[in-house]
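Late entry, evening session. Most of the bench is empty. Finally got around to the prediction I had been postponing all week. Sequence below, unchanged from the version circulated by S.P.
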Amino acid sequence: MPPIPPPRDDGYTATTDVPLYWCRYGDPARPALHVLHGGPGASHDYLLPQLLSLATLGDGFSLVFHDQRGGGRSRTDAPAPITVATHVADCAAVRRELGIDAAPIAGYSWGALLALHVAVAARAGAHGLVPPPWLLLVSPAPSLPDDRARFDAEFQRRQASPTIAGLRTALAESGLRERDPAAYRQRAFELSVAGYFADPVRAHDLTPFRVVGKVQQSTWASVDGAALVAALPGLGVPAAVVHGDADPIPLDSAQRTAAALGTTCTVLADCGHVPYVEAPAALHAALDRFVRSRSA
């Protein structure tokens, strides 16, 4: 697995009731790009090192990540449920405290959905948010319950496939558990998410992560997908939407999101839910075209 380089700087927020971990990669003199990880209930580091390539889009960016409340280094034992509103307010505080109020946002999976919620809240003037100048939405998670149910069913079907079963058997019989426990855990993790890939054999070089179940559940329970979809046509924020044609998240969900935003969805061929591993060159080219078009 490629090593993850240390950030240029990092720390914890002082303006949120729960300290939130943040980090910056790249030259802070360059414009910031705020990157929102998926989950919910996960952490930013599973996007690394591959998505550090976002720093080379256009004329270059510094990348700012934060672990969303309840996951990664932003864990909390506070009893209050963590909701979409919590995450939006936290994003506002992070952007304000780090001086990136007007930065564009790149969101992956659930992070793409969160980016849309942030943009909608900014348009309504909530939390003092400044509307982001543009959005990069990579493999966006579905906002509507029916689409999420379709995703869940498809992912479970793939995880039960003969191909993944064969890979699990090969791992169990390899003796790797005894020879190299760390490598065994790494491979076991990769097989646990192999159903996200167009071809499960490509599930490699992944940074393991953990999703905090209660955060995931409370966040999804708070998503009003119909209200979000209804707000998108008047959002007025340019966006690039990129989705794999073999993503277990339904492609038509991403296409409907793009249409509501007044744009088109760039479809990556033979690619599942992890384009930064499966199709990095095609992903970068699609995002770079959009970023350069905004600069022009």
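Two things to note before I forget:
The first strand starts at residue 9 and ends at 12.
The beta strands are 9-12, 21-25, 32-36, 62-66, 105-108, 135-138, 239-244, 265-268.
Will write this up properly tomorrow.
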